[in-house]
Amino acid sequence: MKFLVTGGAGYIGSHMVKYLQKKGFAVDVIDNFSTGNPWALDDCNIYKIDLLNKISLNNILSQNIYDAVFHFAAKSIVSDSFINEEEYIENNVTASKNLLDGMIKYNIKNIIFSSSASVFGPVNQFKIDENQPKSPVNPYGQSKLIFEEILRENASKSNINAVILRYFNAAGADESGLIGEFHRHETHLIPSIFNILLNEGSVLKIYGSDHQTKDGTCIRDYIHVNDLVNAHFLAFNKIILNEGCFDFNLGNGNGFSVLEIIKACEEITKKRVNYEFVSKRKGEPDCLVADSSKAISELNWKVSYKDINEIIKTAWRWHLRLYSEII
Ligand SMILES: NC(=O)c1ccc[n+]([C@@H]2O[C@H](COP(=O)([O-])OP(=O)(O)OC[C@H]3O[C@@H](n4cnc5c(N)ncnc54)[C@H](O)[C@@H]3O)[C@@H](O)[C@H]2O)c1
After folding, report:
1. CA 99 to chain centre
2. Segment 149-154 mean pLDDT
3. CATH no. for residue 79?
4. Across residues 248-274, what is the average pLDDT?
5. Same domain for 98 and 245?
6. Distance, CA of 70 to CA of 17 (rounded, Å)
7. Is residue 177 one of the residues assigned to a domain?
8. The pLDDT of residue 123
9. How many alpha carbons lie under 13 Å from residue 220 in its C-beta half-sphere?
10. Closest residue (by CA) to atom 11 of ligand 1?
11. Within a domain: 179
12. Does 143 lie in the same domain as 196?
């Protein structure tokens, strides 16, 4: 079998590539390297193109037979999406539509799409299942929801099989320590904490101390990146046997506040984090925790990293290597 991974040089995409390669499959990657890293890839065909470039994209799709496309490529910084709203629509909707059109044109049937918990707005229950209202509170979430709808429409109209996977917060790194999370502009909590710890004198900004949560800081659900990529492969198995469009929320099912994550990082690294409170960011829900029971029952998905400390340990091991050998 042969797979195409868009955004394969990015954090989650590179773990997908490694997972598929370990299973012995051929993997091609499309990436424009806007946030991806060449060192994250090994032993695969890399097409350095932008999905907005329809001609180059169609050339690739016409010359290869792919069993499925894992579509990770996107812009994904919530705060940035308020400033560059049009770019988010172009990169996350128009570029994704180019990919889908090319798949339809060249008879590639299966797509697994990285969506996000950001498609949900404020909800009334603690754990968010797939039936909760989708009312994004930021343009990033809006861009993900628009493409979800395009996929759903095309599944029936154009005979495409699709799985929409809404991740909560991806975290951790491959056990090999060879790949992990690295963004030049880091906005994710755990790597931001490690950056603070490894850059003496710097201070972590905590956005808001007055969220409607137990300690006033945001609560999020952290799911290990390799649990996520495993769910992608199970999703592929699902659409091999069942036609249509399916959606699943993917998370650990446990919520941790920012202060709890800081404490866990301090215990694991044996270092003290300097932090200060600043005002809340626009479009950040107080609490996002997944109800993944649908993925567990329908995909037969099992979360192997249940303990947040184990997730943080893999991330810390990677981060130390990142600082000593890569950047
Ligand atoms: N990291 C998370 O916690 C999280 C949570 C929910 C959803 N997601 C989604 O998962 C996917 C992967 O996230 P990530 O954290 O690995 O991000 P990332 O920024 O590390 O990876 C995205 C990759 O896509 C590439 N890319 C972006 N636009 C492109 C384009 N137009 N053409 C070609 N390549 C392009 C980038 O260069 C990068 O390699 C994204 O779709 C993101 O929205 C991530």
Report:
1. 18
2. 96
3. 3.40.50.720
4. 97
5. yes
6. 10
7. no
8. 80
9. 22
10. 72
11. no
12. no
Which atom of ligand 1 lies nearest, measured to the CA of 40? 39
Look up the pTM and report it.
Answer: 0.97
Which atom belonging to ligand 1 lies closest to the Cα atom of 14? Answer: 16
What total number of domains does the chain contain? 2
- Based on the fold, state whether residues 23 and 138 are members of the same structural domain: yes
**Domain shared by 308 and 202, yes or no:** yes
Residue 65 has pLDDT above 90, yes or no: yes
Q: What percent of the chain has pLDDT over 70?
A: 100
Residue type for position 150: I
Q: Which sequence positions are flagged as catalytic?
A: 140
Note the pLDDT of residue 285: 86
Q: How far is the CA of 174 from the centre of ligand 1 (A)?
A: 17
pLDDT above 80 for 98: yes
Mutate to test the pocket of ligand 1, among 4, 18, 30, 35 (most ligand atoms within 8 A of CB): 35
CATH number at 257 reads: 3.90.25.10
pLDDT at 56: 98
For 193-234, what is each residue's pLDDT tens digit? 999 999 988 999 999 999 999 999 999 999 999 999 999 999
The three-state DSSP-derived secondary structure of 145-214 is: HHHHHHHHHHHHHCCCEEEEEEECEEECCCCCCCCCCCCCCCCCHHHHHHHHHHCCCCCEEEECCCCCCC
Burial class (CB in 10 A: 0-12, 13-18, 19+), 193: buried
- Shared domain for 201 and 98, answered yes or no, is no
pLDDT for residue 282 is more than 90:
no
Q: How far is CA 285 from the centre of its chain?
A: 18
Residue 180 covered by a domain: no
Shared domain check, 307 and 214: yes
* Confidence band of 126 (pLDDT split at 50, 70, 90): confident
Give the model's pLDDT for residue 35. Answer: 97
184 in any annotated domain: no
Q: Do 238 and 258 sit in the same domain of this protein?
A: no
Q: 263 C-alpha to center of ligand 1: Å?
A: 28
114 touches ligand 1 (CB under 6 Å):
yes
Domain coverage including residue 40: 2-171+223-250
CA distances from 274 to 196, 222, 320 (A): 8, 22, 19
Q: Residue length, the chain? A: 327
Whether residue 196 sits in one domain with residue 262: yes
Among 231, 250, 269, residue at a domain's last position = 250
